[in-house]
Inverse folding.
């Protein structure tokens, strides 16, 4: 299954909201994750979730290299990391 950048963006928003125990609507796509309250612990947990979803190894620092949901979704999409038969 191949996900579009928009689908990845929504998926990231949902997953991050769950990890942070907040409403997805509280996580704008274009605001830096650190400004939204993402710290190193949340970054490690999100890296694990991304890794499980796409069957890849993701370093937690990717959240700081691609600091917003928009940037992270574009990175995942452009690197074909959103194309996996196991994606659910």
């Amino acid at each position: 299954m191949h996900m579009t950048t928009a689908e990845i963006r929504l998926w990231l928003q949902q997953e991050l909201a769950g990890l942070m125990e907040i409403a997805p609507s509280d996580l704008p796509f274009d605001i830096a994750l650190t400004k939204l309250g993402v710290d190193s612990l949340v970054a490690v947990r999100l890296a694990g979730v991304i890794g499980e979803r796409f069957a890849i190894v993701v370093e937690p620092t990717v959240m700081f290299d691609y600091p917003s949901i928009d940037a992270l979704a574009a990175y995942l999409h452009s690197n074909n990391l959103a194309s996996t038969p196991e994606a659910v």
